[in-house]
């Protein structure tokens, strides 16, 4: 029997993940009309709503930085992370019947769900950013390459979190119930609404353990340049995300025994 090459195996898994994404869109938003646009519409409503609200009720600048840009550069990554995490809960159980197909693996399911959330949030972010720039509430990024590097790290962190929580919530119902509490308690450590420089120097080390804080600091350094006084460590962000990815893959490879298949 002739074996597939590595490239053929890769293309096969690519087609599987693409099919899972289309199935997820149809399952979640229906097959009729333009329902699939809710992939973009849902995060757009969240991000635009919070940006408008904060711009209206908060001072125009905080710690010398414009409020609208602070919200856009913080809330969009936060939405990406929270949506990836929320959609990972019981993802394997919801798609358990697909695992009867030999080509579909738990990893494919999480890749498809996370990709959908990341792309939807990114498209919403681009629209909110373009609207804020065109209306004069934001400037173009000072260092676009650093902004994109921070976004890439945040996408990886969001995917890693989805991998870990998808497996853990399948293994323990207690963790599934705790996830909502974890989401709220971790808000101060995400870096969405505050920067490391605003903390007293003796406490900064604690918040800089957060991979989310690190990547959002990079995004803001890319947006505001030196004016933001951002604190980040690219080396730390690399290895902490690699460790989280290894943990997530390890758990995902061992989760099948906990999945209830109908």
TrEMBL record:
GO terms for cellular component: ATP-binding cassette (ABC) transporter complex. Keywords: Cell membrane, Membrane, Polysaccharide transport, Sugar transport, Transmembrane, Transmembrane helix, Transport. It is found in: Cell membrane. It is a multi-pass membrane protein. InterPro entries: ABC2_TM (IPR013525), ABC_2_transport (IPR000412). The keyword Nucleus does not apply. It comes from the Bacteria. Signal peptide: none annotated. GO terms for molecular function: ABC-type transporter activity. Residues 17-224 form the ABC-2 type transporter transmembrane domain. Its main location: membrane. The keyword Membrane applies. GO terms for biological process: lipopolysaccharide transport; polysaccharide transport. The chain crosses the membrane at residues 34-57, 63-81, 110-133, 145-166, 178-199, 234-253. Belongs to the ABC-2 integral membrane protein family. This is ABC transporter permease.
């Amino acid at each position: 029997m002739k074996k597939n090459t590595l490239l053929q195996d890769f293309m096969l898994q690519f087609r599987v993940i693409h099919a899972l994404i289309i199935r997820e869109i149809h399952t979640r938003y229906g097959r009729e009309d333009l329902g699939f646009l809710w992939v973009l519409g849902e995060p757009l409503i969240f991000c635009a709503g919070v940006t408008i609200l904060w711009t209206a009720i908060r001072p125009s600048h905080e710690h010398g930085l414009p409020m609208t840009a602070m919200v856009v550069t913080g809330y969009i990554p936060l939405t990406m992370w929270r949506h990836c995490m929320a959609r990972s809960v019981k993802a394997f159980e919801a798609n358990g019947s697909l695992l009867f197909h030999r080509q579909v693996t738990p990893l494919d399911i999480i890749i498809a769900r996370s990709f959908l959330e990341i792309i939807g949030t990114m498209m919403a972010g681009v629209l909110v950013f373009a609207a804020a720039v065109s209306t004069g509430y934001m400037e173009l990024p000072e260092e676009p390459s650093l902004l994109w590097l921070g976004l890439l790290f945040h996408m990886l962190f969001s995917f890693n979190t989805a991998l870990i929580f998808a497996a853990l919530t399948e293994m323990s119902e207690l963790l599934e119930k705790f996830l909502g509490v974890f989401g709220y308690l971790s808000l101060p450590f995400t870096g969405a609404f505050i920067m490391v420089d605003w903390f007293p120097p003796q406490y900064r080390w604690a918040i800089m353990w957060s991979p989310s804080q690190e990547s959002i600091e990079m995004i803001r350094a890319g947006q505001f340049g030196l004016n933001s006084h951002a604190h980040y460590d690219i080396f730390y962000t690399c290895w902490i995300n690699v460790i989280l990815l290894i943990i997530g893959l390890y758990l995902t490879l061992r989760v099948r025994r906990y999945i209830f298949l109908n």
